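subagent[fold] <- orchestrator: predict structure for attached chain, return tokens only, no commentary.
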Amino acid sequence: MAQSKIIPFLTFPEKAEEAMKFYEASFPNAKITRLVRYDENVPNVSPELIGKVLNGSLDLQGQEILFMDMDTANAPAFSWAMSIYVNCEDESEFDAVFGSLSTEGTVMMGPEPVMNLRKVAWVTDKYGVTWQLIWE
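subagent[fold] -> orchestrator:
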């Protein structure tokens, strides 16, 4: 019997592949593990989605994150009410990931120490996805 899992699923306005490649480059050891594209055989597919991401998967520090494109007019907006929490291994990883995600994004907090945490940052990246970066 398969074990239940909780997997984040991100829906983008026709930019899923671009975002996946950005995250793959932003995080150490991140890897795109699956990329299935819309084609003419997908029922009710709109022409602008042909060739876009129907189902993508990224391994990020051992956590699978799923990706999908929707047509721009119908794609939901991301909100900072939901964020992805990342516990960085060391300061150099924290700084590199923060530098990448904050480029063209919005720094909502930090980087700064908070209580017993050495560095904390809250960043919404250029795709609208919010990340909480932690270095203990």
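orchestrator: received. Logging for downstream: The two ends are 36 Å apart (CA to CA). Residues 24 and 30 are 5 Å apart (CA to CA).
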